[in-house]
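Job type: complex structure
Entries:
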Amino acid sequence: MDLRYVHHWEVNSVINPSKGNPGSGKTILASSIIDKLEEQEALKRNEHQICYFFFKYDSPIANTAAAAYKAILAQILWRSRHDKDLIDRFVFIMANKSEGQLAASPAVLLELLQLCLDSNSTLILDGIDEWYVHSESTPIVLKMKGIMGKYALRAPFIPFVIYFLTPKPSTARITTLSFARYSRSLLHALRAFYY
Amino acid sequence: MSKCQAWLSPPNFSDTRERSAELREESTAAWIFDEPQYETWLEKVSQATSLQNQRKFGSNTLWISGMFIIGK
């Protein structure tokens, strides 16, 4: 399938999950890409930052957008632990936006992401259709607005992102054909939303 | 720094990656690095500065979808 702006291709070959770990094929693929990107000399030269998150449909703490924001920010914070400017941004947002709340709220997390991500960032998000299975019933296209839409509207750059889409367990019996239809409709919806 | 980490309280995010690395057999996922779409995308990533004004959700996004449902 060729969408005008979105590079997308369908991988209908089944990756054999090694050593019998059920359903790990796409996760192994995602982790391979992360490893490979971290080894790229061209990216190292630009001080490119690679951030990732694996959504897990069966984990209440790892299937929300806020969990992804937190994990990405934690990676940025750790890598930039000697960067006084970035630490100052965190402290400023913490002090001024958290309203005394002990844990960061999704809106504040998004604001921080906008401050910390730029075109030298790559986000790798595995299993984006796993993130709302339990707790959130909002269609995924609207949830996308949370993680990407605000960048598109307000941030000077948007980061590079890879998404992995896989059928949910409840739809695991769908055929290759119906999955193709599923991904096509999702991508069309996203495209309509962003252009 | 530790106050910032406590405030963020991120979920454990590296365990899945580590587990995948342990399970992965050499060259399991090597095919993807030869895909022309991947190569094109990587080239764009490497020249990120040339895209500084790109605000849209565009060709700097690489989508991968597929039927990875063995065992599920």
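Summary: Chain A has one domain: 18-194. Chain A is about 50% helix and 10% strand.
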